[in-house]
User: What shape does this take?
Amino acid sequence: MSRKLVIDPVTRIEGHGKVTVHLDDDGNVVDARLHVVEFRGFEKLVQGHPFWEAPMLLQRICGICFVSHHLSGAKALDDMIGVGTGVPRAAEKIRRLGHYAQMLQSHATAYFYLVVPEMMFGMDAAPEQRNLLGLIEADPELMRRVIMLRKWGQEVIKTVFGRRMHGINSVPGGVDKNLSRAEVDRLLNGEEGLPSIDEILDYAQDGLRLFYDFHDKHRDAVDRFATVPALSMCLVNPDGDVDYYHGALRVVDENKRIVREIDYHDYLDHFSEAVEPWSYMKFPFLKDLGREKGSVRVGPLARMNVTGTLSTPLAQEALERFHAYTGGAPNNMTLHTNWARTIEVLHAAEVIEQLLHDPDLQADDLVATPAPGAWVGEGVGVVEAPRGTLLHHYRAGPDGDITFANLIVATTHNNQVLNWTVRSVAESHLVGHGEVTEAMMNAIEVGIRAFDPCLSCATHAFGQMPLIVTVHDAAGTVVNQRVR
Assistant: This one.
């Protein structure tokens, strides 16, 4: 008799989802799917609002990657008023500073709080042990450092955007506040309860050290876990290296050949989105390649696959080791996403240090003034969020009210690869087993958590979302159902 296994909810991710695995009579996997079961219609909710409210409203999609939504929206507004990339140099550096601070604290949260429990205790450990409290009990000094790393990143965000969450600094054409010398000195030198930048650079290497140690002890298990080939995509600068704030969209294949490099403003010419009845999350893909060959991976692993170099010395050293491991070829090993994530934590800390020493942060030229008649009324903004490429696209009428909004978030880009990963893990861990254990089921969640998916950001519906009311009698039999 065939069986259906259900993991509901998937734990230690942002948002609500479940997994179903269908097995045949012999215990072989017939199908495996990640279902996104929540719906949040921000693309519709923002319509009718003044265009300048978009970065403030749409960042409330998420309490984790709100800076990325804020900045994608701000870049779209720059387009809409006819400024484009012509924001003042100081304004761009201030935006970038907040962006890297979010990269630091978001990656640290995902890695240490959500991923490390399995690294430290194993997939078969009791659920009451493999969690944050278990980590604190096992290594309190490490977790103290992690908490201070996150706190410092949040203090940088607050200094730049005015709040630790859902900030207000970006405006059309720039920012409305610079950083004072005293604010910069506080972040560089620290104070009681707040680390200095030297301490942060040390703390930022903890994740990398932990991964190296874990990988050395469990190399075969880590490398064999869900190797899923896919295209890799991220923003790149003119030299072809990753740029987390601006650039062209580059897609490379499993031989590191460039299969597409596009101006992100033209994304509609290149990407289409498939829908499935079992999920509220869409499936983007390159039109000319089709869904099977044209789905992309984004995020830390994709960025390290695409980029040749990183601009800071410690992160560059780590990247060279990462590339050498696969002989320069793109890395498709799912758990190596955690390796890539730790490299980006270190890179973010180093870039933040460089920016804090930049005198442009105290400049007064912060907002570009558009030329008369420069209003365009349409804009596209893209940044590399911690989880991957994030796109905001708005249109507004002549009165400035939003008439259209489209978001393609990192988790949406990863949707197809996520589902391939779920199936790969299910096939390797469940096939032929008479008894399904907690460790086997948790392995599927480990595969999902490697992507650090944000399902709240990624849930948009195509067409109408039905309301279904089902009435059951005491025996559980359906006696009535209404659909609207």
In short: The chain has a mean pLDDT of 90.
